[in-house]
Design brief:
The protein is of the alpha/beta class. The chain has helices at residues 3-21, 41-44, 71-80, 113-118, 124-136, 163-180, 190-196, 203-206, 224-229, 234-251, 255-262; strands spanning 97-98, 104-108, 145-149, 184-188, 211-213, 216-221.
Length: 263
């Protein structure tokens, strides 16, 4: 194969990989140097040379698009993932739960003990408070929300995810967002905010503000676990939720009536 053909095949594979996994830092950043293959010995002995492949075998246009991700397919990959050491200590992976065409995606940080046992995000006291917060602005995981985490396995002792664990896992959330196509995102807590909006000034300064995540409006809010530890912040959290509700009314007028009818 000639060097030019190798470069074309490499470009095709790079485009296909990015369409499936997204752009990963450091992956395919530099195109390798390619050289022509040496002529086969049979050619030197007089055997007929292999015919040149037709030009259409090396398309110059856009690569063929890979099949779109589905939430069920992503969940299967999450369940079998062994990309970091959290796979050794988890009981269950926690992919996510909720409506498959959600108005809102809620993103938390990582599973805790109860989530690890049940395989579902935001259960226990924090989950009940989150459900109450969502219900107050006509949202629920049963009708118009999907709930997921930045990390799909529980870190030991509920510690913060390590950078290498986030790097190994974050592509799952990116693919979930692409598959779900939410109209808006609630980033619950500092870990989710830091991963989705790295340039933010932290949850204390940024809660209740609007950011853009790849064309999707995003608001960071206090994590329910934090509100359970410091109930004095619930008034501020309610103020943030009312601002978020105003946005939803602009994005999808009448969503509250639809939610009420589906209860």
């Amino acid at each position: 194969m000639e060097a030019a053909q190798k470069r074309t095949v490499y470009a095709f594979l790079r485009t296909a990989a990015r369409s499936v996994w997204g752009v990963q830092p450091g992956v395919f950043d530099r195109t390798p140097e390619f050289a022509d293959d040496p002529a086969p010995e049979t050619e030197a002995q007089g055997s007929p040379a292999a015919p040149e492949p037709p030009a259409e075998a090396f398309p110059q246009g856009p690569a063929r698009t890979a099949p779109a991700d589905t939430i069920a397919g992503i969940d299967r990959e999450i369940a079998s993932c062994r990309a970091c050491t959290l796979c050794r200590t988890r009981t269950r992976t926690v992919g996510g739960t909720g409506a498959l065409r959600p108005l809102v995606l809620v993103v938390g940080e990582a599973p805790g003990r109860e989530e690890d046992e049940q395989g579902l995000p935001f259960v226990g006291r924090a989950g009940k408070l989150l459900d109450d917060m969502l219900r107050a602005i006509s949202l629920s995981r049963e009708t118009n929300c999907f709930i997921a985490n930045t990390i799909k396995c529980r870190p030991p002792d509920n510690r913060d995810p390590l950078p290498e664990e986030e790097a190994a896992c974050f592509h799952f959330l990116e693919r979930q967002i692409a598959a779900l196509k939410p109209r808006a995102i609630l980033a619950s807590g500092r870990v989710a905010l830091g991963r989705l909006v790295p340039a933010s000034e932290g949850i204390t300064r940024s809660h209740g503000q609007f950011f853009d995540y790849r064309g999707i409006p995003l608001m960071p809010v206090f994590h329910p676990s934090f509100l359970l530890r410091d109930p004095s912040q619930k008034a501020a959290a309610w103020g943030d939720l009312k601002k978020f509700r105003a946005l939803l009314r602009e994005l999808e007028p009448g969503y509250e009536q639809t939610w009420s009818a589906g209860r």
